[in-house]
Amino acid sequence: MDEMLKEFLAESAEQIDAASTQIVAFERHPEDAGLIASIFRLVHTIKGTCGFLGLNRLQKLTHAAENLIGALREGAKATPEVVSAVLAAVDRVKAVLAELEETGQEGDSDDSDMIALLEREVSRCKGELADEPEPAAAPEPASIAAIAALPTSEAPAAAAPAPEPAPARGAAAPAGAAEPAHGKRAETIRINLITLERIMQLVSELVLTRNQLLEITRHKEDETLKSPLQRLSTMTSDLQDAVMRARMQPVERVFANLPRMIRDLATDLNKKINLVTDGGDTELDRQLIELIRDPLTHLVRNCADHGIEPPEERVRLGKPAAGTVRVAASHEAGQITIEISDDGRGLNKARIQEKALALGLATPQQLGRMSDEEIYRFIFSPGFSTAEKVTNVSGRGVGMDVVRENIQAIGGSVALSSTPGHGSCFALKIPLTLAIAPALIVEARGQRFALPQHSVVEAVGVNGGEHRIEFVQGSKILQLREAVLPIGSLAELLTLDLPEESCGEPEQLAVIMRVGAHSFGITVDAVTDVQEIVVKPMGGSLQHLAAFSGHTILGDGSVVLILDPNGLREALGLEQSRETAASEADVARVGGADKMRLIYFQAGAGVDKILPLSNVARIETVSSDKIEQSNGMMLTQHQGRLMPIVPAAPDVMVKEGDNTVFVISPDDKPFGLLVDAILDIVDEKLDIEIAGEAPGIVGVANFNGVVVELLDIAYFIDMSRTPASADVKRESRLLLVDDAAFFRDMLSATLQASGFEVVKAESGAQALARVAQNARFDAILIDVELPDGAGYELAARLREAGCRAPMIALAPFASREVTRAAEAAGMAAAVGKFQRNQLLDLIRACVGDDAGEFAFASGVAA
To answer: Taking the complete model, does pTM exceed 0.90, yes or no?
Structure first.
């Protein structure tokens, strides 16, 4: 196959997918002349290229389709019959393109049936068949789509009308259109995926070489090499980031096929269904784009078939006749969340229980002890279906188990929630990429391994406190607070030999993991680092080792194996037990909206300290000989540049040997917080009972019966800054509204340390008074729970008072409900109070040069 034909096939595949999506959108919005003009250009472009390449069959087929689309462009009504005929032609073109790609030939099949159908619809559009009788016995609605797959003239000449679709929200033109929306051709070039992968491999080798050079020169005092190596290090990091970005593609590529599928399903099921997509510009590794296509498609089909009720039933229940299936993608904490939800009947708990008993998946006693979420998760069992009859859409019990397995295979999870009468929601959480991932570097018997962080819940000390390992019927179990978990030794699971110099002390740290519905622990000697690792596949002779998913090269140039969480689960012998399975919905919430992940540690002679884990970019062990004193400040080398270190308490000193340092990275200017020892990482509710008076302390809290102090991270940011960097020009003025004194003080210190002028108010009334004084504010931060009314109500009252500053909602946890309520109130965004970096990014977006664009995009009056 010559290069010109390959290029034609690649471009045509994109154009035909774009045309299919736009045709469905045009059926719902026939008044949009731009849509039909774009569709006409796409088909016309394919037809013209076919003539140039001598592809006569495709040229005739696209010419007939172009005639019908031209009639629509001239004002003909976009009836379901006409749209179905155009979609059938699109499917036939796709089939011919597939045959052309596989064999290099168009094939000898006859398209006269399809051409006749298109010509008949053209004549009908032009009124030439107005006096003829209607065609007899119309086929089933699905027949028109089947015409596209028939290679010869065996298909019927017409199709039955589909039910009138209900109006839906206006969809943007998808990627792949012949011309971009602004009339300027995108500056892109096609690149072979093999070439891209090769570039990625070369960059990884470059990183390794860079690290080796840094290690060599670290012990030499040759100043002539340090500057070039620093430049090389920076350029290598930038190059690695650029290559990773080249692999990313918008999830819109997956969404593009959904409108056509929903239309066909509505026709097949005789339902009215609207599709709403959101977050299509969210980027994902191109490898994962293909891997999630089938699971996503199955979940959407499941919502349409099982979830959405027939129109007459919905009207009887007081719902709109048209149901809605919503697919939304968002980026959360290094993962992509894709939610597939519907406003239908919800899951039938009684029917699921009945089916589970019939299949022997649980006993009546076990079902009685299960939560609703655990019962709902039976639908992921192989062969499980509650459908009363088998259709061409569903009912065979095949699919939901594959959905879960496919998502878990790429390090993701599936959460499920349902409300009877109001619909269901499936939440897919998947990593951004399989090529690079955050990982814990753990050590067992002198050997290091990388453990993907997406499966790690927490790390706890064992055999020295409340967390104990015991033997029950010959098996190890971990007593973790109120839970009992299976646990195993990483060294024993991997049959690692004990180093000769070791005294054989038992492992003292347990890493708690969750894979699917299973929670379990793995004991290790230590967690030595947290790094973003480049994932390399296992060699052919090692691929049979289930405990490992690949290998990586660490910053010091050493090669370590990457542990496979699924392999560790299997090595522990965990079966697909439902009785002890935990709900993944609870995992997604991280203990509930009133809890947060905290790091609990010792610093100095006083009481123990806590910090929200979101403040800590990474935890490092720094040798005392790597810490130097300069101008009254401790410094160390970090990622090729100097990083200041400040003690977490006045009496925290550098110890001989290894020291624990929290790396804090505000504004990409990292500094280290020196502590004595990490005690635990837990999910707990933070309840400050006494405001702090000492410098660097926000307040005092009761933490599981122990008095602890919450550190003020803004105080330590100021300590880490040199006088030059601390002298920030204060230009932007913020109004902070929060009734809790410790939150006002903590947030204002953080904002002031970042260069903002802050005016505080403890109630809605005070906030209105500040605005009434004609004070100028560039942005307003509002707590959603105020003593004199909700923050959303205050936002509306401030707007009525003439305030036009963008407003940001503050909550302990920025849940979806909070985000939606903030959006409905016309606020710019919602953010958690402890999500410092996200808060600063939002404020800068509001007060920066692009503030007008940001406000408009968020629905805020500028």
So the answer is: no
142-169 pLDDT per residue, tens:
334 444 444 433 333 333 333 333 333 3
Model pLDDT, residue 181: 39
Q: Comparing C-alpha atoms, which of 809, 805, 808, 826 is closest to residue 818?
A: 809
Q: What pLDDT does residue 692 have?
A: 63
Domain 585-720, what fold? OB fold (Dihydrolipoamide Acetyltransferase, E2P) (2.40.50)
* Average pLDDT of the residues in 832-853: 71
- The amino acid present at 591, given as its one-letter code, is G
* CA atoms of 821 and 815, how far apart (whole Å): 10
Rounded CA gap, 236 and 150, in Å? 53
Q: What is the mean pLDDT of residues 704-716?
A: 80
Neighbours of 793 (CB within 10 A): 15
* Number of other CB atoms surrounding residue 329 within 10 Å: 23
Angle at 403 between CA 398 and CA 404, to 5 degrees: 115
Question: What are the distances in angstroms from CA 437 to CA 489, 496, 543, 561, 677?
Answer: 24, 25, 20, 14, 26
Sign of CA dihedral 497, 500, 504, 506: negative
Domain 436-571 homologous superfamily, CATH: SH3 Domains (2.30.30.40)
Q: Say yes or no to pLDDT of 395 above 60.
A: no
Instruction: Read off the pLDDT of residues 280-336 as tens digits, 9 standing for 90 and up.
Output: 888 888 778 878 888 888 889 888 888 899 999 999 989 999 999 999 988 765 578
Q: What is the pLDDT of residues 432-442, one digit of tens each?
A: 766 667 788 89
Mean pLDDT of the chain: 75
C-alpha dihedral (251, 254, 259, 265), degrees to nearest 10: -140
DSSP 125-148: HTTTTTTSPPPSS---TTHHHHHH
pLDDT at residue 727 in the model: 39
For the domain made up of 733-861, the CATH class stated in words is alpha beta
Sequence-separated (6 or more) residues with CB below 8 Å from residue 780: 734, 735, 737, 767, 798, 803, 805, 806, 807, 808
Q: Is 247 exposed, middle or buried (0-12, 13-18, 19+ CB in 10 A)?
A: buried
The domain locations on the chain are 3-186, 202-247, 252-431, 436-571, 585-720, 733-861
CB-based contact 521:545 (threshold 8 Å): no
Q: Please give the average per-residue pLDDT across 753-765, as a whole number.
A: 82
Indicate whether 858 pLDDT > 60: no
279 pLDDT above the threshold of 80: yes
Name the nearest CA neighbour of 726 among 842, 618, 651, 646.
Answer: 646
Q: Name residues whose C-beta falls within 8 Å of residue 282's C-beta, 6 or more positions apart in sequence.
A: 250, 251, 329, 330, 331, 336
Of 1.20.1250.20, 3.30.565.10, 3.100.10.10, 3.10.310.30, the CATH number of 252-431 is 3.30.565.10
How far is Cα 229 from Cα 207, in angstroms, rounded to an integer? 12
Interior/surface letters 203-220, b for 16+ CB within 10 angstroms, e for the rest: bbeebbebbebbeeeeee
HEC assignment per residue over 219-243: CCCCHHHHHHHHHHHHHHHHHHHHH
DSSP state letters, 67-95: HHHHHHHTT----HHHHHHHHHHHHHHHH
Confidence band, pLDDT 50/70/90 cuts, at residue 507: low
Task: Give me the architecture of the 3-186 domain, per CATH.
Answer: Up-down Bundle (1.20)
Report residue 92 as tokens. 């036939």
